[in-house]
Amino acid sequence: MVKRMLWLVMALQVTVAGALAWLLARLVPADVALLLAVTVVLMVRMAISANNFRMAARPVPQHAQLAWLQRLQLFLHEYMSTMAVTSWHMLRHRPRLHLASAPRGLPVLMVHGYGANGGFWVHLAAQLEAQGLSYATVDLEPVFGDIEDYALQLERAAQALLAASGSARLVIVAHSMGGLVARAWLRRFGAARVARIITLGTPHFGTDLAHMGPGDNARQMRRDAEWLAQLDADDRSQRGLMTSIYSWHDNIIAPQDSCHLPGARNIALHGIGHVALGRHPAIAQHILAEIMGIT
């Protein structure tokens, strides 16, 4: 369903670019018209990304403040990450379970966020494979479903990975909403089979931007959601299993300290956008350190 939705968006962009090129070809050479049309579409995507940063902007600690060049790098990296993930990696994604021939650690189950699929993890998957780790991705459906229902899907994926790898425990790495899915799974199925849950940019206490999103899952991620309050009350005794990694410059989670989870290990970075959390080298280093440090 996610891929179908993304293909529709891609088709719309191509159609718009084609129509613009046809109109502009009356004024300029055809190759110039096509270049201008593609540029317009890319600029619209850039404007959407810039608006996300604007809506999510909140005061940051003194140590996390950025100079103008760093702000530009932050924006460009997030924009390019978004374009690569939504216009290429998620379109080409096929669910995958990779078993290392001589695994060095526990298997890793990767859980994507809102409006995404397992293609989000292409960069981290390559890092895990290079380190000799087994892994799998899960695709949560339907796109705008209930997080509690996603927890059941996560359970099936966990069972499959544990059975295939022969391991008694696994590590969960989850982006954004996926972190809430992992916590809902933990609350429902217990901690016996999980060694660590690592969340990236997860709105543990909601995000203001969720009011703009459709679906039960978006409503569950609102700052005033009763579902989040109940989850917070229910899993406090299990926080020692969790690591929350997030950025003070997340352009989707607002306020950004909503990612700070009391009782968990919290790692706050800066200069990284929301989608870029899945491909930034500093994030990968922290994830691998957490995984390889498990005894």
Automatic annotation (TrEMBL):
An MF annotation (GO) of this entry: hydrolase activity
Keyword match RNA-binding: no
Top-rank taxon, per record: Bacteria
Keywords associated with the record: Hydrolase, Membrane, Transmembrane, Transmembrane helix
Transmembrane portions of the chain: 31-48
AB hydrolase-1 domain span: 107-233
PANTHER family in alphabetical order: ALPHA/BETA-HYDROLASES SUPERFAMILY PROTEIN (PTHR47909), GPI INOSITOL-DEACYLASE (PTHR47909:SF2)
Protein's name in the database: Alpha/beta fold hydrolase
Native source species: Pseudoduganella guangdongensis
